[in-house]
Write a structure and sequence with these properties.
heterodimer; A: 110 residues; mainly alpha; Four Helix Bundle (Hemerythrin (Met), subunit A); elongated; B: 130 residues; alpha/beta; 5-stranded parallel β-sheet; 5 strands; globular
Amino acid sequence: MTDTQARIEAGMAVLRGRFVERLPARLDEFAAALAAIPEAGGEDARSHMARLAHSLAGAAGTFGFDALTAAARRLDACLRDPASPRALVAAGLAEVSSATTSIVGDGAID
Amino acid sequence: MKALERIMVVEDDADIRDILELSLAGVGGFQVSLFGDARSALAALPENPPDMILLDLMLPDLGGLEALPLIRAEPSGAGAAVVLLTAMAGVDVREEFLARGVQEVLFKPFDPMTLPQVLAGIWLATRGDD
């Protein structure tokens, strides 16, 4: 491994750790976003939560957290379907929360 | 042909911005400017004309496709190569976005070690006739 590769990999490990540290704050944002979604309608609130899910999917995938990426993508798709009941959105968020807990709780920070 | 040197990144997610900076500056050696929203990036264009703009599709307030014509309307952005970055998966959106005037579409997640090479390849492909 060259010095540059070693430096970049060290930088990646730091960023990955920072991403994991920020996950609980992301979950708080999701919880607030879900609370703003009414039983029916709430297009803007759904759109906001979809953007959170979309963003999380992109970041988690780049850091190699595939299960979290998949859960965030499912939540994103659910939110973009106007026919999805709020309960399904809540279930999708529970999946994201579970995937997050397994990352934060299993010592995933290198 | 001018070499790719200056890349403007417009990405609202702080974690992805961080990794893009590490990738493009640390691995690629490019001059990188980072913005969390399109309006700030647009305001910076005159003083910070980039060769390439890496533009997130989903941004708060002003999305990537909404920002594109405003970028093109700026003299300092008119000639920049614009690469759209999106986490959309399983959707055949590339052709649609290319038709809207972006030079290429890249999908998240991306490999930070190879992204600079990918962007250099896009630059060569789009500037080959210069």
